[in-house]
Amino acid sequence: MVALAILRVEKLKSFGNVGGSEKHTARLQDTPNADTTKKNLRLIGTEDGTALEDLVKTKIASTTKHKPRKDAVLCSEIFLSASPEYFRPDDPSLAGEWEQDRMVLFAGASRTWLLNNYGDKCVRAELHLDEATPHIHAYIVPINDKTKQLSHKEMFGGDGRVGSIKLSKLQDSYASALAPLGIERGVKGSKATHTKVKEYYQAVNSEPLTNVWSNKKLAPQPLESATNYVARIQNDDQFQVLNHQLADRAFMLERLSRAEQRARASEKERQRLEKEVRELELKTQQLRDLALEDVAWELGLNYDRGKWKGHGHIINIDGSKFYDFAPEQLHGGGGAIDLVMHVQGCNFRQAIAWLGDRFGEAGAQRAAIAHTTKAAADIIQTEPRPQFTPPVEDRNNWSAVENYLIQERGIPSDCVQMLHNQGLVYADDQQNAVFIMRNLDGQRNGAFLRGTRGENNRFQGYSKGTKRSDSWFYFSLGGKANDFTSTAILCKSPIDAISRAMLEYLIRGDVPPERTAYIAIDDIKSLPLERLQKVPNILVAFGNDKSTDAAAQRVLELLPQSQIKKSKAHDWNQQLLDYGRQLRQQQQQQQRQQSDELSL
């Protein structure tokens, strides 16, 4: 199970409460279930013998301006821990045990969190190692920095919804500090409560097995053999009832565990979405232009009967737009920068400098971003979109490229000719093999180039203007041209996609019975997710390269209907070459056998 962060806050309203708490945490009195052979550690505060009560009094006297109110919380006690799964992952049930490295990391992260959040207001923190699971008791004097008065409510929240929100944010903060250790935040709003020690032992003592042994009918009889005893109690109605109860209990515990897992997953998704919303709100604020009314005010214009007047201007402001009705002006525009340029009679750079002087650097940046955003939108709407121009075909070089694909890459000649006839593969003036890339509607948006001239030519790249996010090298085999694609096989390069298809063809002896698409995907960012979600069967065939394992796993996360298929060789083309070599060896062996038989 996942390890969860634990944080609770208690109020200590009197110095008697403070002293009583210290007796427990400093082990000044006997503590049930505490192992006296194990030593607790003080994480914050000295071991000089000063009583906790005196530490709290000294802090209050040196910091607060007034005497504490009668109902004031004098000290706040924070309990920090993590569920047993973190401290002893192999067997959480082993109470009183922990892995030393994990305990040290937990203690260090918790101490850092306390100091970062409360500084010298945290007068003491004790790490308890003598109970079932390591935990920390920290004492905070809740002083408000602004009012210099005690205020537990201001620091930790009080009763009601506002207090719950503050406590929830505090738990968020602590969970974030422990996240690098693999400890997660519990489910927000959970109604789960802390089980006290006495309640725990009561629950243990009422287990069904205790009831079994207290029932005399189910106890073994004098001189009764084990075999007879087992047979007798198995036929007893009460024993069957207990068996059913235990089975029901196990079933409910399993259901509870699954529900908790689903709740944690939902909570993590909610937190992720909440973070995205906050980031979007921040970005939206940063993208929003300055209010034109504020700019007009700074420009020295006066608001009179719906218009901003002054310096020979009569300006009406409507949202992000303005219009000057002064007879000598009659000019309209939009945005803070345009308004400054119009009223000040200055250029763009001077307008930015003016805004920076009046609204600060952040304000000038907001105005500049809004101005650029509007200009970009105008350009996108009016400027024609660039069109991809494929490399010019050079037919004189095709024989060399064709020979490269057949002889050096082992691709059957009829396959090469088929792709060439479809315009998907051809040669350019540099004797590169050109693999045409299309969007899923068939429009040509790019090309992948593979060098073939000379020995050991390793050149590969994309033709200028290729739209990599919306074009792929792909082709389909099997079924009919207008059939729905039932299988998509994703490979890392055009040659690998062709090789994978030809391996299937050579092994099967025919094209696949159903429509199958072979697609070259060189990066997870270019995955055509929306279209692939509709394909029932997907093979992630990125070869046998460890560098692509992470990308393959990511595809599985995005497309649950997919499965990974690794090549036996380094990649599918090498496997195709190896398979072709085996076929030729078998053919030569058969020819030799036939020749030997004829000679006989």
UniProtKB/TrEMBL annotation:
- UniProt keyword annotations, A-Z: Coiled coil
Which InterPro entries does the UniProt record give?
Answer: DUF3991 (IPR025054), Mob_Pre (IPR001668)
Gene3D superfamilies linked to this entry: 3.30.930.30
Report the coiled-coil segments. 249-293
Kindly give the Pfam families that the UniProt entry links to this protein. Answer: DUF3991, Mob_Pre
Annotated DUF3991 domain ranges read 403-480
Concerning its family, UniProt says: Belongs to the plasmid mobilization pre family.
Q: What is this protein called?
A: Plasmid recombination protein
